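Final report, closing paragraph on structural work. Over the funding period we assembled a curated collection of sequence-structure pairs, and we close with a single example.
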Amino acid sequence: MNENKTRTLADPLDPEHVAAFLQENPHFFEAHQDLLTELSLPHESGGAVSLIERQVAVLRERNMDMRHRLSKLLDNARENDKLFDKTKRLVLTLVEGQDMGDIIDALFYCFDKEFNIQFTTLYLFGNIDKIPSSQAHVVPLSEARQHIGTLLKNNRAVCGTLNQKEMQFLFGKFANEIGSVATVPLVHGAVFGMLAIGNRDPHYYRSSMGTLFLGYIAEVLNRILPKHLPR
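Its predicted structure, as stored:
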């Protein structure tokens, strides 16, 4: 039997060949528009719709999806604008602080009132008798290394959960209320402090969460706090 016989119109067409032909000739129906009225596609409701109607439905769905994505982008842009404004006000307030007490009071106030951060703690490392009094906790660096030594080695912001020893040291009596935290060491030549924030939601500060904001605030503190600390 000859398998290479010439194909005639009476022979059935291979669906894959038809699909390949239409992919290679996407404008085929423009030259054969009369065929569109003869085509129909099954409808989910059990009826049939024309190819044009189906194409319109698909385009409408894609349009709705794109509008949804655009709406989310605009919402994110608005939130970023708000975050930028809050951060700018905080930085200006920190820079204008006359002493360490003013600076740290401004930090705690803005974190609480502007950023709605539920728990904030700040540690400064050194001699408590030589560091000016403020809302910051003052402990020797050696003591801090005993409790949060791993966090101090990173020199970068970290988000997620901590062990009980670290939580107890950083947040004291509030440790059991906190589900997730973000921490960042303060460094000026050498580490001189630790800034930590917490939230009751265990998923609020995640390990995959961006740390740009907290890292930026730490960089500001790295530049303005050391001038108020003993050399």
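The domain at 98-228 is CATH 3.30.450.40 (Beta-Lactamase). Helices lie at 15-24, 28-31, 51-96, 100-113, 141-154, 164-171, 212-224. We thank the funder for supporting this effort.
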